[in-house]
Write a structure and sequence with these properties.
Elements (H helix, E strand, L loop, with lengths): L1 E5 L2 E9 L5 E7 L3 E6 L10 H7 L3 E6 L16 H15 L3 E5 L1 H10 L7 E5 L14 H9 L3 H12 L2 H4 L3 H14 L10 H13 L13 E7 L5 H13 L3 E6 L6 H5 L1 H13 L1
Helix pairs in contact: 1-11, 2-3, 4-5, 5-7
Length: 283
């Protein structure tokens, strides 16, 4: 166990062993009823420090360092979402947490965890990475994988970013997006970690594609679900999630943040999102 102090308060870095023997680390902060937080693609547990700190005013928050990141073990051979589920369940058994938060791909994992599972009583997902009728693009994968093989990591990130961008950004020329990313890394140097997570991103998107159309399975969720999204996300995938999931999940409510985008929970307004989620968990 490692203890650290930061502007977001005292955090402990701890580990748990998953079903297949993989060591998975997590960051712990706060006291109270337990909440597990699942980061999205190209993100690490530390990226949610502000969100976790805000939630830690009233809860014990455990942010999972998903496989292939930090002190956690690799994704491993035969990677699939079941391994992610096993990691979450190992952490749940370790902490006794009954609340779960997931963002993007972490939201997809959260929903999959909750199927036929009463361990979690309430779940909040911010724009979960659920593909419906091909709503999550996959055409970029072949070119992306080729660029990774050629060690052209920044070019691979450009390919992915443009494919997954809101409509207002998707038409930006690749050379300009590359320049914008370079400037972004200068302004936010910690974000350069994304370049080391590109292979993990590809594996995770393969799971998103494989599970396309499986949202009907979420009728098996007994937990109360809060479905959150940003009004500025400008995404067909998000629109379909907001339309279809509440009709399937037995207990589901939605909440929009009109001024936020896909990264509202992570970067744009983590304290604002934490307040809404904390109120939901406290009911």
């Amino acid at each position: 166990m490692t203890k650290t102090n930061s502007r977001y308060g005292k955090r402990e870095s701890r580990t748990v062993i998953s079903k297949d023997g993989t060591i998975v680390s997590f960051l712990s902060v706060g006291k109270g009823n337990g909440v597990i937080v699942l980061p999205g693609v190209l993100s690490m547990a530390s990226d949610y420090a502000a969100f976790a700190s805000a939630l830690a005013d009233n809860f014990a928050v455990y942010t999972l360092e998903r496989r292939g990141r930090g002190r956690s073990g690799p994704q491993g051979d035969g990677y699939g979402i079941q391994k992610e589920i096993d990691d979450v369940l190992a952490l749940q058994r370790e902490t006794g947490a009954s609340f779960l938060v997931g963002h993007s791909y972490g939201g997809l994992v959260a929903l999959e965890v909750a199927r036929n599972n009463s361990a979690f009583t309430k779940i909040a997902v911010y724009e979960p990475g659920v593909s419906i009728d091909g709503s999550m693009p996959v055409y970029w994968m072949q070119g992306y994988e080729k660029k990774l093989a050629e060690n052209r990591n920044l070019d691979a990130l450009v390919e992915f970013t443009l494919a997954d961008a809101p409509a207002r950004l998707a038409k930006i020329p690749a050379w300009l997006m590359k320049l914008m990313l370079r400037l972004f890394f200068v302004r936010y140097p910690d974000s350069k970690q994304m370049l080391g997570l590109l292979q993990q991103n590809l594996c995770e998107w393969r799971e998103i594609a494989r599970l396309d159309g499986h949202y009907i399975d979420y009728r098996e969720i007994s937990a109360a679900v809060l479905l959150l999204y940003g009004g500025r996300s400008d995404s067909r995938a998000v629109d379909l999630v907001i339309e279809r999931l509440p009709a399937v999940i037995p207990s589901c409510e939605t909440m929009v943040f009109p001024k936020l985008d896909h990264f509202g929970i992570e970067r744009t307004a983590p304290r604002e999102v934490a307040k809404v989620i904390g109120d939901f968990f406290s009911r």
